[in-house]
Amino acid sequence: MLKALRDIRTLRVVIYHPKDRERDELVAQIRRIGCEVEAVWPPPEKLRQDADVVFMLFRQDGFTHVLLKALAESGSQASLIAIVEFESPAVIEAVARAGAVSIVTKPIRAFGLLTSLVLSRTISAKEKNLIDRARKLESKLEGFRRMEKAKAILISRKGFSEQEAYDTIRMRAMSARVSMDVVCATIIDADEFIGL
């Protein structure tokens, strides 16, 4: 079973939608699914940080702009589900720019809400995993660059071969009980200091 489906009852859901019959039905259906839900209108300047899923009405008005700005500033990790009344180029662009991972159309119906919740959490988890992997790879690549730069410094300053430079870095790291990356950074910093 999908983790997102297993964890559905633990989700904290926030709905940014004007109070009307459709919002009340959406709140009731999400409660029936088993999620903790809060409906908010008008949109606050600061959004909740602890929400797992945000349902947000997208339309061409000032409230949508305020919500999008607050969403961008919050740095929230919540999965965004867009509620769309009609498809205009401006609304579609706003939904795409906001990073919505699922869409619910108006009039809102109970059918498809569970699927939207599960799909949004699954996509968000995969996206987070990819971002984390990219950061790790960037960090690793930066470590390789530092290693190459430190080896180049030892080769040019001490006349070492590439293997001797690597072995020197490795031995210093082992004797100091630190990572090779720390030794490389120290060599680079010392070279930059001397180069001043």
UniProtKB/TrEMBL annotation:
Domain of life where this protein originates: Bacteria
Transmembrane stretches, start-end: none
A GO molecular function held by the record: RNA binding
UniProt cross-references to SMART domains, sorted A to Z: ANTAR
Any single Pfam family the record assigns to this protein: ANTAR
InterPro entries linked to this entry: AmiR_N, ANTAR, CheY-like_superfamily, Sig_transdc_resp-reg_antiterm, WH-like_DNA-bd_sf
Domain ANTAR: 127-188
Listed name of the protein: Transcription antitermination regulator
Organism annotation: Methylopila jiangsuensis
